[in-house]
From TrEMBL:
Keywords: Hydrolase
Record-level Gene Ontology MF annotations: asparaginase activity
Domain spans labelled L-asparaginase N-terminal: 4-160
Database matches in SUPFAM superfamilies: Glutaminase/Asparaginase (SSF53774)
Species in which this protein is naturally found: Luteimonas soli
Enzyme Commission number(s) from the entry: 3.5.1.1
Protein name, entry field: Asparaginase domain-containing protein
C-alpha cells in the first residue's frame, strides 16, 4: 500500500458527549489518532470533508465525497461514515472506477470505552489492502457488499438483505 487515503464524514465514530447540553455533537475526526496509537506500518493521509450525522448527509454531500475521492491519486480509500446512511453513500461511491473503497464507522463513539470503532477500523484497513477495486462496507467484523446489506436499527447491527 503506497498511502492510505482516509476521508471522514462524521457519524457516531466522531461523536463527543456534552454534559451541559445532554447531547452528542460531531467532534474532530478520531481515525488519525487511532491509527497513530495503533502504530500502523503504512502512511496515511486524512481528509476531513464533513462533520455530520449520516441522517443529515445530502445528495450534494455525497457528490462532494465522490468527487473528492475520484480526484485523489490513491487507489485505496477508507471512508469513516455514520452507519444510518452508509449503504446509500456506498452506492454513490460505486461509480468511481479503479479504486478499492471501504466504508466503516461505529455504533458507539470512538472516545467511549468498549466502542467498536478500533475493531471496525482495523477490519477496514485489512479489507482495503486485500479486496479488489470496488466499494465495500466493514462493520460488525464482516465485509459487506453494499447491495446486499442493511443496517438493522432495532438490533443495532448490519445484516444481509
Amino acid at each position: 500500500m503506497e498511502e492510505l487515503l482516509v476521508v471522514t464524514t462524521g457519524g457516531t465514530i466522531d461523536k463527543v458527549y456534552f454534559d451541559d447540553k445532554s447531547d452528542y455533537q460531531i467532534g474532530e475526526p478520531q481515525i488519525g489518532r487511532i491509527l497513530d496509537e495503533l502504530g500502523v506500518a503504512f502512511r496515511f493521509r486524512v481528509i476531513p470533508i464533513l462533520r455530520k450525522d449520516s441522517l443529515h448527509i445530502t445528495a450534494e454531500d455525497r457528490e462532494l465525497l465522490r468527487a473528492t475521492i475520484a480526484a485523489q491519486p490513491a487507489r485505496q480509500v477508507l471512508v469513516t461514515h455514520g452507519t444510518d446512511t452508509m449503504v446509500e453513500t456506498a452506492k454513490v461511491l460505486a461509480t468511481i472506477p479503479g479504486k478499492t473503497i471501504v466504508l466503516t464507522g461505529a455504533l458507539n463513539p470512538a472516545r467511549f470505552r468498549g466502542s467498536d470503532a478500533e475493531f471496525n477500523i482495523g477490519c477496514a484497513v485489512g479489507a482495503v489492502q486485500s479486496l479488489p477495486p470496488g466499494v465495500h462496507i466493514a462493520m460488525n467484523g464482516r465485509i459487506w457488499d453494499p447491495l446486499k446489506v442493511r443496517k438493522n436499527v432495532d438490533a443495532n447491527r448490519f445484516e444481509a438483505l
